[in-house]
Amino acid sequence: MNIILLGPPGAGKGTQAARLIADRGLVQLSTGDMLREAIKAASPVGLRAKAIMEAGELVPDEVVNELIAGRLDLPERYSGAGFIFDGYPRTEAQAVSLDALLSERDMKLDHVIELIVDEDALVDRITGRFSCSKCGEGYHDRHKLPKVPSLCDVCGAEEAFKRRPDDTEQTVRTRMAEYRAKTAPILPYYEARGLVRRVEGMAPIAEVERAIEAILDAA
Ligand code: AP5
Fold first, then answer.
1. Which residue has a Cα nearest atom 27 of ligand 1?
2. What is the tens place of the pLDDT at every residue in 134-146?
């Protein structure tokens, strides 16, 4: 089963992808994570993407299309359970490219799950978040602080918290504007094929997960 998780920054795509991996063995393909890895490695893709991401704008289509094509071809990626596309596609050109990449491999999309959210609440979600750089556990300034301020609750790492450079309020507003202008318009492309399912993304995390699981179970 191959699914796309669609929604603006902070909608919960990464959070729900992690749960689907744990529950169903699906493989997550997050272009945001791939680009952050490329920046960390100072690869040519990372050098090209860094300033664009820090401005909250979209990285060129050909860059992310190539990243996805490369991951689909890694043999260890074929768990057999399928893929979760998280943060991809984000433009119509990316959607068309994904269709071609899948059909070349005799694969198809099963669902496009749109998380319906309130943008103002998302600014709070994003600007307050931080995570442990050792184990990835997520925290929030207002909703989920570590029990001991400098220690990760899960792995015990000390002073290892990090924030994403694009999680400032101004950049989040640009990211949301990019979503409205370039990503939301791809929904009709999938609606015309009856693939879009909508989930209330402002509900508690476990409830959002249950709604997504119900859609996948009904398939
Ligand atoms: P990317 O990394 O994809 O970021 P994003 O889409 O802006 O999404 P986020 O990761 O910020 O949010 P999310 O929806 O995953 O929410 P999360 O689960 O983390 O992209 C970053 C940049 O890379 C882009 O701006 C662009 O420059 C570039 N890029 C990436 N892909 C690209 C592409 N295809 N084309 C071109 N450029 C590309 O949750 C957020 C917070 O909310 C967390 O703290 C979480 O705990 C909390 N939370 C989640 N769900 C709930 C809930 N139901 N209730 C309460 N809190 C919740």
1. 53
2. 998 999 998 889 9
